[in-house]
Amino acid sequence: MDISYENRLDITVDAYLDMISKKTGALIGCSLELGALLGGADDTLTSRFHSCGCKLGLAFQIRDDMLGIWGDPKLTGKPLASDIRRKKKSLPVVYAFQQARSQQRAELEEIYRSTEVGDSEVNKVLAIMDKVKAQDYAWQMARRYQQEALADMKALSFSQADQHLFTEVADFLVERNY
């Protein structure tokens, strides 16, 4: 789905979230679920771990999308706005397409239909994203899923120390710069 989205201009935020839930959400959800199974958890507890992991996966992927656009190349190892140059339909891009006014949307469509995306086009996309506050939206979404994962973990009634460790991991996944 992720690769096929690169050639489409009709991706919605909901479709994007569905796609990453089947990618990064599923991966991290499965990891936590397997840990619970190996630890002898019952079906209810295992399901809660899976749900928590899925939400962490969404938060992680959204942060990764942000780093693919606004991340420091020295820290990420990728050129600035590399995901725009690749025409990847990450959350900030999908959100920009949805929120852009008609002229802005026409510009985005022209850029994302072109065979090559250069510096000038990248700057246009970044300007449109800035106008529609795509970075703010992505931050809000990443933090939303992080907070939902933390709420799930608190409902599991673990010790304060274990909850603290889990919170540190969740914070790292959303705050990381690489």
Description:
The protein has eleven helices and no strands. It is mainly α and 178 residues long. It has one domain (2-175): Farnesyl Diphosphate Synthase. It starts with a helix and ends with a helix. The mean pLDDT is 96.
TL;DR?
The chain is built from 11 helices and no strands.
List the SSEs and their pairings.
Layout: H1 2-5, H2 13-21, H3 24-38, H4 43-70, H5 73-76, H6 82-85, H7 91-99, H8 102-113, H9 119-132, H10 134-155, H11 160-175
Helix pairs in contact: 3-4, 4-10, 4-11, 7-8, 7-9, 7-10, 8-9, 10-11
Helix content: over 70%
**How many domains comprise the coordinates?**
1
- Characterize the largest beta sheet: strand count, sense, and whether it forms a barrel: none
Q: Give the helix tally.
A: 11
> Under CATH, the topology is which?
Farnesyl Diphosphate Synthase
Judging by the overall fold, what is the CATH architecture?
A: Orthogonal Bundle
Q: Strand share of the residues?
A: under 5%
Principal-axes shape call: elongated
Question: What's the order of the H and E elements?
Answer: HHHHHHHHHHH
Query: Averaged pLDDT, please?
Result: 96
**Top-tier CATH class:** Mainly Alpha
The total beta strand count reads 0
Task: Sum up the structure in keywords.
mainly alpha; elongated; 178 residues; Farnesyl Diphosphate Synthase
